Write the structure tokens for this entry.
Amino acid sequence: MFEPVKAGLGEFMQAFYAEVVPTTRPLVEFVERGFPYCVAWAPTRMVDRAEEMLAAYQRNDTRQGPTRPPDLPVILVAVAKDWVPAGREFTTQIADPVDITFPDDPKQRYFRVKAVAGDVRAQVAIFASDEPTAKSLAAQLLLFLDSPSRRRFLARYPFAGLEHEYPAQVEAPDNPASSIDTGSQNLTVLAVDLTLKCTVPIFMAPKAGEPNDGKGTPGTDDPAGYPLTNEVDAVGQEPSP
């Protein structure tokens, strides 16, 4: 259920890549290479095994031919496995299910939703063959993060044939880009730790065998809604003569 947050982070990184200014010769090639060949996902805490993660990225790079660009610089992005809840004081959390309808739902079904809010830890590691290039990318990333409007992105959650947008934000780090010692004189690695503040909805629909409104099929992408209960107030009347 956190994949939309990861996808939103990918869009955030793509927006950063589009604004990178080549201040060194390797960065000239970096901005021409294209986003898919410059930014990639890696397992969690990739800086603990920096060179191993870089080697895995290079093995998975499917570009062929003698004109293949150099592999460096490259940015690897990882999302941690843990989850840090925001706590009861976070007003966007919804612990008890509430009834909900979607204006764009042509069937006007009733569903229920809960929501969790908290932090997803992420890490951006910059790999370069020279220190000036790594520093330039790190400085430009932290500058990009300095804009509150750029730090916000939307995570899109599919449910009942619709996409539901929930906001998320990249929290700017107080710490600088940290140098990771790999023991190699020909590799500079700088890591930036990020925190993604997000609210994740948990949509609920009747399960198979439970009462429903018959406007869909339980357990599918087109689920039935909860049955609508109509309350009727009886008003006493004098019997007709």
